[in-house]
Design brief:
Helix 2 (20-40) packs parallel to helix 5. The two termini are 24 Å apart. Strand 2 and strand 3 form a beta hairpin. The protein is α/β, with parallel strands linked by helices. The chain has five helices and seven strands; from the N terminus they run H-H-E-E-E-E-E-H-E-E-H-H. It has one domain (4-188). The protein has a five-stranded mixed β-sheet, sandwiched between helices. A two-stranded antiparallel sheet has the order 4-5.
Length: 193
């Protein structure tokens, strides 16, 4: 998933009012959620993004030992930045204050940027492993409460992306996870026994 706190040019320009370490832990958790969903459906997910120096989608998804698709996990943690107030429109920003977000102000660029990044990672993988070229690319999205504007996005999107997946948030599990120390969170993510 990369560095989630700096995926958006506007967010980088305005500093990281949202704690980058929290966003990294959440991003790792989102990847784990997607991997578990695949397992529930009888697929296995092989992590690709941690194997090489070159960009890779997060998962090669297989069933019965045969590759079926590639999957990249993305998150949008903010609906934008209020320069006049000094906060991100996000449940993750401790400085969040009263605001109004009008439909005409909603930017689709974050969504477009993340789709383009997923395609870029797929293309890098296919350059190295041409036998994976025909596999569909699925992009799994997680949104902050204020940033979930997928319903406003056109039904057509980047032609290199075969599908978009969203998973309903499990608020109780997320709250419990956030109460854990960073060390406990890491243990849960990487050694869930």
């Amino acid at each position: 998933m990369g560095h989630p706190a700096s995926n958006n040019r506007e967010d980088r320009a305005n500093g990281d009012a949202i704690k980058p370490e929290l966003l990294r832990r959440l991003a790792d958790g989102f990847e784990t959620v997607v991997e578990k969903q695949f397992r529930k459906l009888g697929y296995s997910g092989t992590r690709l993004d941690r194997q090489k120096e070159r960009p890779r989608p997060d998962f090669l998804v297989s069933r019965s030992g045969r590759p079926r698709m590639l999957c990249e996990v993305k998150a949008i943690f903010s609906a934008g930045y209020r320069r006049d107030r000094g906060f991100h429109i996000s449940t993750r920003d401790e400085n969040l204050g009263p605001f109004t977000l009008y439909r005409k102000e909603i930017r689709r660029t974050q969504f477009d940027e993340r789709l383009s990044d997923a395609v870029r990672k797929r293309d890098a993988l296919v350059t190295d492993e041409p036998n994976l070229e025909k596999l569909p690319l699925l992009v799994a999205f997680f949104f902050d409460f204020y940033a979930d504007h997928l319903h406003l996005y056109p039904r057509t999107f980047n032609k290199e992306v075969s599908g978009i997946l969203t998973i309903k948030r499990d608020e109780a599990t997320i709250k419990a996870f956030e109460q854990l120390s960073p060390a406990e969170q890491e243990r849960c993510l990487f050694d869930p026994r």
